[in-house]
Every structure is written in structure tokens, then in C-alpha cells.
Hints:
By secondary structure, this protein is of the alpha/beta class. Helix content is 45%, strand content 11%. Strand 2 and strand 3 form a beta hairpin.
Amino acid sequence: MRFINPKIEFAFKKIFGSNQSKPILISFLNAMIYDGNPTIADLEIIDPYLALRVPYLKDSYLDVKARLAGGATVIIEMQVLNVESFAKRVVYNTAKTYSTQLIRGEGYFKLKPVIALTITDFEMFDNDREVISHFVFKEKKRLFDYVDPEIELIFIELPKFHKQLDELETLTDKLVYFMKNAPSLEVVPQTMETVSEIQQAFAIANETNLNPEELADLEARERYILDQQGILRKGIEEGLAQGREEGREEGREEGREEGREEGLALGMREKALEIARQLLNVLDNQTISQTTGLSVEDIENLREE
Length: 305
């Protein structure tokens, strides 16, 4: 058997956000948010995955969105590319989801909590080795909660997970292992066969259950991500080299350390603009902005050149 890659947003939506995925999503959220305790009994998947989307383009910032029985909203995103200002984007999308619950004139008492669960295929926090990080509003010195936790940010950093099959103990371990390693597996591991929701996830992820159009779409998206990773790596390397050289020259001329930093920033921006120009006929402005770190206004100006 071959399993599709849950880290590709098309596959992630199909596994966790389709109409038959409710038990999988409930189990996943209980594992990642509540340490495997059955806190969530029911939920509603908002705008569930139903059909193919436009190839190459990320459907939205939020891969899966669900409303819990108590009214709280969970927004789940799988992010493969480490684009500039991604951490700010997570906060923005969470705050936007929270604030847009009300229509004009409604009271604040109607606001319900929002939980942003973000899975990354890169490391977000270099100073910490834990796989899962959970952020809430707390008093800075005494660390007590700000009333009820209205907004929570949870990050799962897949590169920090190193457990092997024989080391998997908890439901959280097994689900993170599935997220990270499903494409490299040929059968469902015995250690996971006892969890019905994981069995169901593997069944949905089985390539034999995809039609030819879905397989073609998945392959196109995988190629797109590999291309973007290559562009970003090349851009970073060339930008760093150019920035260092310009920084050295400016630093020698002005005798200031700031010259190196300004030159580096200039080199990186020029490279980002060059990459953006190559993508103008392929992607929309928002996606190019995500990929390069440039503002949407920068992209619009490039189109007008």
C-alpha cells in the first residue's frame, strides 16, 4: 500500500476535514489539545472538503475549521513552507476569526473561544525542544490566566518528533507519527491497529481510494511545494551572499556595523522581488506574498511594471 502525504494541504483536508472525518478529527483534537482525554465529544466541520480545488493554489490560510459542541471554534492549519512573518499570520488569522464572530450591534458576551492549532514541517521555536507548544494569555510575572482562555495558540513542530514505532505510547505519539511518516509506510503499523480513528485515517490516506483526478492533483501540489522549497532555499542562499558582500562594502565605506545589516536586508529583498516576478503568471497576489515575504502591495506594483 501507499499512503498520501498528510502534510500536503489537499491530503490534510481529505483526511481530517471531509464528511467522514469527524471521528478522526475529534480524536486528533483531543490528543493535541487535551493530552488524549475525551474532552471533545462532538463537533461540526465547517465547509468540509468535498471536491477538487484549483491545482497549485492553497485554498485558504486555514486548512480545516471546526465548531465544538460548546461553541468554540478550532482552526487547524498544516504549513510546509517557512515563509516570512508566518508567526504573525497565525496570530492575525486567530484574532480575525475571534473578532468576526459578531455582527454590528451584538454584545461581546456572545464571543466564543478560538483555538488555533498549527502543524509545521519546520521548527518554529529554536530555543525549545518540545514537539507541542501551547500558548494562552497569562499575567507576565505571576502567570495566572487572563479570565477564561478566549484565544489559544497551539503549535506542533513535526521535525522535533523523533520517536520510532516501538517507542509510541500515547494517542498523541501515534497521530504525530502518522502525520510525519505516513508516506514512507507500506502497511498500517501493528501499534496503531488498535486505534479505530487512526485506522480510518490510514484508509482515507490509501492511494487506492483516490480517483485519477485526485492523484494527479496531489502529485501537482507535491511538485509545487518541492519547487517552492527549492526557490526559497536558492533565494536565501543568494540573498545572503549578496547581502554579505553589499554589507561589507557599505560597512567599509561608512565604518559602521549597520552597513552589513542593511546590505543583507537589501539583498534579500531584491531576491524576493526576483522570485515574485517569476511567479506572477502562476500564482495569485496573496500566495506570492506568502511565499516570498513581500507585501501584497509590492506584488501589485510588480504587476503594474
